[in-house]
Model the fold of this input.
Amino acid sequence: MRFQRLDLNLLVALDALLTEKSVSLAADRLCLSQSATSSALGRLREYFGDDLLVLKGRQMILTTRAEELIEPTRAVLEQIRSTIAVKPEFDPASSDRLIHIMASDFTTEVLLAPALAKMQELAPNMRFEIMHMNANPVEALERGVVDLLVTVDFATSSDHPSELMFQDDYVVVGDENNPAMQGEMTSETYLSLGHVTVRFGRARIPAFDDWYMRRKKQQRRIEVVTASFVTLPTLIMGTNRIATMHRRLAEKMARYYPLKLVEVPFEIPPVRELAQWDIANNNDAAIRWVVDILRETAASEVPSKFRDQGGDSKIALEFQTDKDRL
Done:
């Protein structure tokens, strides 16, 4: 490869010749034959218009021009070694990287919040920006708008690396004084009560539980629709309405609100939360470190019964197909 008529491959030969002041010693250092090294010296002499190495008595010495080239040549090669040839190390304690993460409010509450608290201790200078989910999360990842996407598996792409963070199931949530929450929840009671549910964006994309009930042709009486998972508790407090919530979020919200949790009276497939990053950033040590912390946090937060289950991928695929039609 040439740069302004200089074959850049000759820089290594030039450094060896300037250091060793001998064609034979430079050849040994370069693992080349003496004739190949002599040829390199000839091309360097032609480029610089200077002999570079001259014979004085029984030894070779450097010309004035050669002496001037010693430090610049070493500096260029060291710059290449430190910035290109050597993989940069990542030190969380000193890094000031800004990482953009796209996630829902559910994911933020149950995973990002505790993970970011841990990361503050380990990487006090790193910064994070959490962005709301949009209709095209993978496109945002590919355009470099976000560094990490943390969301349900059917919203990710097989074109990019991803890692399972956790699985979660659902529970019915109501005000602790709601008479319907005092005993076992039956399907009849569940369907007879007013519901609060979540739908997203202009397309009013339903949450998974809402979509699943429609697919099962089970009619619920939807009385309130909100755009956020974390607003569900305040919308059912003081009423006889109920909501179907992710268990992890429901248990966390029950620490702060007067809520009661009961089991869903029928089976709803669990959701699988993945972290995904662009394949171009697969060797980005900072992003991989963040993913490691997220995984460790998820393992400590999620019940063991969800850690190694594969989930219902067929159901998830059908949900994605129906969602795309909206």
Q: What stands out?
A: The two ends are 53 Å apart (CA to CA).
